[in-house]
Amino acid sequence: MSAEPAAHRVIPGATVARLPVYLRALSALATAGTDTVSSEELAEAAGVRSAKLRKDLSYLGSYGVRGVGYDVARLRDEIEGELGLRHDFSLVIVGMGNLGHALAAYSGFATRGFAVRWLVDEAPDVVGTRIAGLTVIDFDGLARECNDSMIGVIATPPDAAQDVADRLVALGVRSILNFAPAVLSIPSGVEVRKVDLATELQILAFHQQHPRLDPKALDRDALDPKTDDLEEGAAP
After folding, report:
1. Most Cβ neighbours (<10 Å): which of 56, 146, 153, 205?
2. Where is NAD(+) bound in this sequence (predicted)?
């Protein structure tokens, strides 16, 4: 597998969004003891088309070896490097309601290079309590401890989200994951990713009410001469 330096490559945002999916698939393959994987096999594991996967990986300078495929360990290392996962990032979770509690206790962060370092809330009866092994602090306490690798996670009600975002930005945070159902006004240079659980459920509700037709059934209909006759206006 050839790999050219990717430092000067401009990687599209859609490709960046798929890299964690490829990384998860590669990690599963490595755990299963797989050393090499074809683009078709990796694409199937990631749920994308193989042509799209090959194009995405070409932005990293990874092209695989014809007849062999990709070296799983090497490709995983390349993606981790591109995503900046070779050192830990510190997470600050703001808002210690039910969602904040759940995020604080989520063990999946640690296995993917993210460490929850701070839990923040402004409610006097919450500050000082212990959640998932950490003591909840307020923003004044956060200001004394924050660092350059901090990523903010907003888990507040929507009416508090903008103020929280402003305060995080003022502390130097340049990456924010927003769980609050609110549109944030953010200065340039700050990246925000929005996770709207209610919207995702509404999309699922739509598909629940409007199930898609089975593509295989559609293919059979297309090959059925009776169907063609009906489409032509012939009597059944």
Report:
1. 153
2. 95-100
CA angle 37, 39, 40 (to 5 degrees): 100
User: Beta strand pairing status for 134-137 and 130-131?
Assistant: antiparallel
pLDDT tens sequence across 117-163: 999 999 999 999 999 999 999 999 999 988 777 999 999 999 999 99
Q: pTM for the whole thing?
A: 0.67
From residue 69, alpha-carbon distances to 36, 57, 62, 93 in Å are 6, 12, 10, 40
Determine the structural domain holding residue 147 and report its residue range. 89-195
Q: Are both 102 and 154 inside the same structural domain?
A: yes
Known binding-site positions: 95-100
| Binding-site sequence positions for NAD(+) | 95-100
Q: 157-187: per-residue pLDDT in tens?
A: 999 999 999 999 999 999 999 999 999 999 9
